[in-house]
């Protein structure tokens, strides 16, 4: 009888701890979303690494779901629906409707909009940071798992690690600046690239 009682108490305590952890994780990600999802937008530097693409560094401007990412090889515009990718080496612009994973690979802040769509939340602490852990509980998400490192004081993320199938991609973020961004920078303007070949892949 005593063993059964202990098992029940342990189970209840575990449920309570899990609920508290999930509540803290939700609080952290909501505050982080407020910081980086400010109405006027923001900009930052980023470095992306994966075994498939190697290392890519650049700058990014964001505003809601929109983003503009620039590297030494490409420029990507996303207006919330359509993505334009300009490759400097070929002078081509590919027009696509990107998947969740594709948006995430170029815009590390996509998580502020997708975490509510079928992800289980957890959080641990490490030094001056929270480490958010998101696990997808639906096959509809192209991202299976994410770790997001968030500063405890500023609630700005400094690193994001995400898994798609068995492949991991790590994104480091520096020099985050809350700063108003004009809407026109999130759409491709053919006048700026008059000789580029536009290829519609939608």
Automatic annotation (TrEMBL):
PROSITE patterns linked: PROKAR_LIPOPROTEIN (PS51257)
Annotated CDD domains: LolA
Highest rank taxon of the organism: Bacteria
Signal peptide: 1-22
Keyword Signal: yes
UniProt keyword Cell membrane, yes or no: no
Entry-linked Gene3D superfamilies: Lipoprotein localisation LolA/LolB/LppX (2.50.20.10)
Entry keywords, A to Z: Signal
Family annotation (InterPro entries): LolA/LolB/LppX, OM_lipoprot_carrier_LolA-like
Entry protein name: Membrane protein
Organism the protein comes from: Segatella bryantii
Taxonomic lineage from the root: Bacteria, Pseudomonadati, Bacteroidota, Bacteroidia, Bacteroidales
């Amino acid at each position: 009888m005593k063993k059964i009682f202990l098992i029940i108490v342990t189970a209840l305590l575990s449920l309570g701890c899990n609920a508290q952890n999930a509540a803290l994780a939700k609080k952290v990600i909501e505050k982080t979303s407020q910081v980086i999802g400010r109405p006027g937008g923001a900009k930052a530097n980023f470095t992306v690494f994966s075994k498939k693409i190697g290392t890519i560094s650049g700058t990014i401007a964001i505003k809601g779901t929109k983003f503009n990412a620039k590297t030494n090889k490409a420029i990507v515009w996303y207006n919330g629906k359509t993505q334009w990718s300009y490759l400097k080496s070929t002078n081509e612009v590919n027009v696509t409707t990107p998947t969740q994973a594709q948006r995430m690979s170029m815009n590390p802040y996509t998580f502020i909009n997708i975490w509510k769509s079928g992800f289980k939340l957890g959080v641990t602490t490490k030094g001056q940071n929270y480490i958010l852990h998101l696990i997808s509980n639906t096959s509809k998400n192209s991202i299976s798992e994410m770790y997001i490192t968030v500063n405890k004081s500023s609630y700005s993320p400094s690193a994001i690690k995400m898994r798609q199938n068995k492949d991991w991609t790590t994104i480091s973020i520096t020099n985050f600046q809350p700063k108003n961004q004009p809407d026109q920078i999130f759409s491709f303007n053919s006048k700026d690239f008059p000789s580029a070949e536009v290829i519609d892949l939608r």
